[in-house]
Each structure stands twice: as structure tokens, then as C-alpha cells.
Design a protein that fits this description.
The chain has a single domain, classed as Rossmann fold (3-Layer(aba) Sandwich), CATH 3.40.50. Helices cover 32% and strands 22% of the residues. The chain has a 9-stranded mixed sheet with strand order 3-2-1-4-5-7-6-9-8, with helices on both faces. Strand 4, helix 5 and strand 5 form a beta-alpha-beta unit. The radius of gyration is 18 Å and the shape is globular. The N and C termini lie far apart (60 Å).
């Protein structure tokens, strides 16, 4: 089965670790790569996959193509919904964090926007997603019609949300959406090879960092 660009991993894991979620919904489980990374990085101590009773973090997944799911994924997630996300939505409660790794491009644009709104309403902290940066054609893979790319998303498609951070490199876009102001690090003009978008946001973050650093130096000197 296909997988998202591995160069995204450091930036995505930094964003997830900052949120410190107690519950995560992974939309589009696939290999289960991100579920495993979330489990490994967020559990206190060592997560024993054979003793689910001691798991501290609830990580649920959604996978529209059941043939992708095997023993590995079942060992990582608390629960996996084996249905398209549109059918799962009415059953969902709230999660601290919702993650969509290279999923939104598999929906027509308007349905994708509706899905983002529905998921954002269920994300207590933030909704993190990635998508290719530029048109990228893809059809069925391994007999899975859900692998078709049906839309192309640009940076501007995400900037209209009230509380958002958008990062991009030449290959992909990472967007962080929230219902509330996002607490961000002062240096957040670039992250893991991704540049913050638009350039005015990157410049603003840089100037804020430089000002804070200048103030600290003055305090030490006084």
C-alpha cells in the first residue's frame, strides 16, 4: 500500500508532541506508521503492546479499505473503524487531536471542506493534516478506489481558517487548524525543512523571536 512522504515525520511529530494529546484520531490508518509513532512518543515509559490495559493514550483509527488492516495495526490502535470517514463521523465523540496524513486530496474539494469542518468541531486541541504541494495524479492502488486523488489543495485553501498555521516545502503542505488560538513557539517561522506560509507569517514569527531575544539580553545586561 502507498505511504505518505517520510520527510514529513519530524515536523508532524513535533506538532503532535507540543499538543500532548490524551486522545488521537488517525484518519486513514494505512500502514499504521503514524499510530505507531504516536504510541511510541506519547506513552509515558515504554508502551507494552501486549498489555493494552496500561496504555495511557487513546489512539483510534479510521480506514475505509479493510484489506489494509492486519495484526500490526490492530496491535497499535485502541480501535479502528473499518468504514469511510463519512460513515464514521456520526459515531465520533471528541478527541484532543485529529490527524489526517495525505487524506484530504482523496475527496472532491467541497466534500473535503465539509469534512474538515466536521472534524475540526470534534478536535479539542487541533486538527493536523498533510497533503501534496501541487497537482499529483493517482488512481486506484491494489484494488482500492479510495486511493484516487480527487482534488488539489493549495496553501490558500487553509489560510482562511481563523486559527491556523501552514507550513510547506516543494513536496507537501502541513496545516494545523484549531478552534482556539494556537500556542506556538517563538521560533516558528520554519520547522523540519518546512517554511511557514505565507511569507508575512514567517516574517512576523521571526521578528517576534528576535524581539523576545533582544528583551532577554537587555534584562541580563541590566
Amino acid at each position: 500500500m502507498p505511504g505518505s512522504d517520510s520527510n514529513q515525520i519530524p515536523a508532524i511529530m513535533k506538532l503532535v508532541s507540543e499538543a500532548q494529546p490524551a486522545s488521537i484520531l488517525d484518519v486513514g490508518v494505512g500502514w499504521g506508521k503514524y499510530g505507531a509513532l504516536f504510541r511510541m512518543c506519547l506513552e509515558s515509559g515504554y508502551a507494552n503492546l501486549s498489555d493494552r490495559r496500561n496504555w495511557k493514550i487513546r489512539i483510534d483509527g479510521v480506514e475505509a479499505f479493510p484489506e489494509y488492516i492486519g495484526a500490526i495495526q490492530q496491535a497499535i490502535y485502541n480501535h479502528i473503524f473499518l468504514e469511510p470517514i463519512e460513515q464514521v463521523l456520526p459515531k465520533l465523540g471528541e478527541y484532543d487531536l485529529i490527524f489526517m496524513g495525505d487524506v484530504i486530496e482523496h475527496f472532491p474539494k467541497e466534500k473535503g471542506r465539509q469534512l474538515l469542518e466536521a472534524l475540526l468541531a470534534r478536535a479539542q486541541s487541533r486538527l493536523i493534516l498533510s497533503t501534496p504541494n501541487g497537482p499529483y495524479s493517482q488512481g486506484d492502488i491494489l484494488g482500492n478506489p479510495f486511493e484516487r486523488h480527487q482534488s488539489y489543495w493549495e496553501i490558500d485553501d487553509f489560510l482562511s481558517y481563523p486559527h491556523v498555521e501552514v507550513y510547506a516545502n516543494k513536496k507537501s503542505i502541513i496545516a494545523v487548524l484549531s478552534r482556539f488560538p494556537i500556542q506556538q513557539a517563538g521560533r516558528r517561522w520554519a520547522m523540519g525543512g518546512y517554511r511557514r506560509q505565507p511569507w508575512t507569517a514567517a516574517l512576523g514569527a521571526y521578528l517576534k523571536y528576535r524581539w523576545q531575544r533582544c528583551c532577554k539580553q537587555r534584562q541580563k545586561a541590566s
